[in-house]
Write a structure and sequence with these properties.
The structure holds 2 protein chains of 2 kinds.
Chain A lengths: L4 E12 L2 E13 L4 E5 L6 H8 L7 E6 L2 E2 L5 H11 E4 L11 H12 L4 H13 L15 H14 L4 E5 L7 H18 L2 E5 L11 E6 L2 E4 L2
Parallel strand pairs in A: 3-8, 3-9, 6-7, 7-8
Antiparallel strand pairs in A: 1-2, 1-4, 4-5, 9-10
Helix pairs in contact in A: 3-4, 3-5, 4-5, 5-6
Chain B lengths: L1 H10 L1 H38 L4 E4 L12 E2 L1 H6 L6 E4 L2 E7 L6 E8 L11 E2 L9 E5 L12 E4 L4 E9 L3 E2 L2 E7 H6 L7 E2 L1 E4 L4 H11 L3 E4 H7 L3 H43 L4 H33 L10 H28 L11
Helix pairs in contact in B: 1-2, 1-8, 2-7, 2-8, 2-9, 7-9, 8-9
Classes of the chains: A alpha/beta, B alpha+beta.
């Protein structure tokens, strides 16, 4: 079985003043189907850069990124946008919902952008809202929802186009401990149920119990285990 | 794309209706000023524009102004018969007293051969006859002064009483209505011992005739109608100042709109970043923004047109205002293009947004 997301010897450097600083050094990583992986590490260790490269938002300086065994390292902006639209679901730190769309319209938008808004997609939308427990909130605007509810909409949105990969970037940064547990448990459950390859970047070690494996990011290197 | 654009306008009603309102005011002002320009222009030169003459023979030092030129044409009448295609054009300023009006009415009197090409025909009442009766047809703008068919207008200096038999339209010259009287009747008054004219006009270009007339009168040049119109006192300056107002309004609109949409876009940059991160393409985001501008502008233009119709109805009747739908349509298209161009500036920002900015910043 081929893993949906594979990074091979990825290196990325940023210019800081006069010098180049290696944010990522020779990183290899595989996300398997149905597995929920956590990446932890201190600030500035390159966690977000790692997730951006895995999520087709950034291209690496060296190395290869395979999404569904397609190498995306040489893709143009437009092709990268397509990869993000169809193969990757994001859950951000803040829910980042569109303020003027109702909950169901948030999900409908990503289906429409992909161009497959049909009866089947409509049913799928209903199921997703049901599984994140927001069926009754379908006609609500984001400003009428609580922080936890917004994040759950974001989770449903990430699954809407049925991507193979789910990437979560500090999804609980703006939530209290009880809500954090609830949200991450929800992501874990959905990932298992829908057989996605999921990667979560977090600094909250109490959430690691929901994950199948843990990596630590330290000075540009990815080390297995806490 | 379309529904996203509309949903945002619908959700942020206040924000977008304020922008729409500014657009509406700006468009209304452009429409009203252009209507005024058109109305003033009509008032000044409509008769010349409608006149079935293409070339005018005027004295050279008249600087293309009809009132500065004058001929005695007794000899011309003898040498070259009128049926070769020429007509004399004589304009006389009069002040007439109407029973219906407290003030004297300024008019331009033109003696005319009712059978010839210069005569415009009436839209109401009866046409002039080639008789010595003091019958006149007048421009319908005189209705605003209470003049009706059958009324008499009195000229005090020569003690003349004219009877109105019909109304013409678009027969105004130098901001006053034209009244036409039969030539026979005019010369029957013995106001002048000679046949006189300000200019000789012809209906169609005719080199031979033009040369003959020039050789007979031997003082003047042939000029085109357009040159005569441009030389009507006040016409160019009126039109130029109004056109400059319109041009400035449109330029101001470009900057105001561009600034507004730019600020709106800057406010939404983060949101565009998120949408890009989840797979939205530049074309989609720019298209949505342009669609919003398009919708707002079209709605504002429709409202502004309605408002202009309303204004043209409540303006006092004597006010020179011309509601010209084709003119409004052309300004509308110009405003639409201008506002779309203005919003293109913000499109550059949208294209430049880095989707990565949606990723954690508070690490």
């Amino acid at each position: 079985m081929i893993a949906p997301l594979v990074l091979e010897n990825v290196t990325k450097a940023f210019k800081d003043g006069e010098q180049y600083i290696n944010i990522l050094q020779d990183i290899s990583f595989t996300a398997e189907k149905g597995k929920f992986t956590a990446v932890i590490g201190p600030s500035g260790s390159g966690k977000s850069t790692f997730l951006s490269i895995a999520g087709a938002l950034l291209t690496p300086d060296h190395g290869e990124v395979f999404v569904n065994s397609q190498s995306i390292a040489s893709y143009k902006d437009k092709q990268l946008a397509n990869v993000r639209l169809t193969s990757i679901g994001y859950i951000f730190q803040a829910a980042n919902l569109v303020p003027y769309l109702k909950v169901n319209e948030q999900l409908k938008l990503v289906a429409q952008m992909k161009g497959n808004w049909d009866r089947e997609a409509k049913q799928w939308l209903g199921q997703l809202l049901e599984s994140v427990g927001l069926k009754a909130r379908a006609e609500y605007y984001p400003h009428q929802l609580s922080g936890g509810e917004k994040q759950r909409v974001a989770i449903a949105r990430a699954f809407m186009n049925n991507p193979e990969i789910i990437l979560a970037d500090e999804p609980t940064a703006n939530l209290d401990q009880a809500r954090s547990d609830e949200i991450v448990a929800l992501i874990a459950r959905e990932v298992k149920e829908k057989e996605k390859a999921a990667v979560m970047v977090t600094h909250d070690e109490s959430l690691l119990k929901y994950c199948d494996s843990v990596y630590r990011m330290e000075q540009g290197k990815l080390i297995k285990g806490k | 794309m379309f529904s996203l654009a509309l949903k945002e306008i619908h959700f942020f009603k206040l924000k977008y209706s304020l922008i729409g309102f500014i657009l509406f005011l700006m468009a209304s002002l452009v429409f009203i000023v252009s209507g005024l320009a058109q109305g003033l222009s009509n008032d000044n030169i409509a008769a010349l524009e409608d006149m079935a003459a293409t070339r005018f023979y005027l004295q050279e030092d008249a600087e293309n102004r009809l009132d500065q030129s004058g001929y005695i044409i007794d000899e011309l009448e003898e040498e070259i018969p009128r049926d070769t295609g020429w007509q004399p054009l004589l304009t006389q300023m009069y002040r007439l007293d109407a029973a219906s009006s407290e003030t004297l009415l300024d008019v331009t009197l033109i003696p005319i051969d009712p059978e010839a090409f210069l005569y415009p025909s009436v839209i109401e009442g009866e046409d002039l006859n080639d008789s010595d009766m003091l019958e006149i047809v007048v421009d319908r703008t005189m209705k605003a002064d209470g003049v009706n068919i059958g009324d008499t207008l009195y000229e005090a200096d020569q003690d003349l009483t004219f009877t109105v038999v019909g109304f013409t339209e678009n027969q105004t010259y130098r901001h006053s209505p034209i009244i036409y009287i039969a030539e026979t009747a005019f010369y029957n008054l013995d106001l002048t011992p000679h046949q006189v004219a300000n200019a000789i006009v012809i209906e169609e270009v005719n080199e031979e005739l033009q040369t003959d007339i020039h050789q007979t009168l031997n003082d003047g040049t042939w000029v085109e109608k357009d040159a005569i119109i441009q030389a009507v006192p006040g016409h160019s300056s009126e039109q130029m100042s109004l056109m400059m107002m319109i041009a400035f309004l449109i330029i101001i609109a470009v900057f105001v709109l561009a600034a507004f949409f730019y600020i709106l876009t800057i406010q939404k940059l983060n949101q565009f970043g998120v949408l890009k991160a989840i797979g939205a393409k530049n074309l989609f985001l720019v298209g949505t923004t342009l669609l919003q501008v398009f919708c707002l502008t079209v709605i504002s233009l429709i409202l502004a047109t309605a408002f202009t119709i309303f204004v043209s109805n409540i303006l006092p009747e004597g006010m020179p205002f011309e509601f010209d739908l084709s003119l409004i349509a052309s300004y509308s298209i110009m405003i639409l293009i201008v506002s779309l161009l203005g919003s293109l500036l913000s499109s550059i920002r949208i294209v430049k947004v880095d989707p990565q900015q949606a990723m954690g910043r508070t690490e």
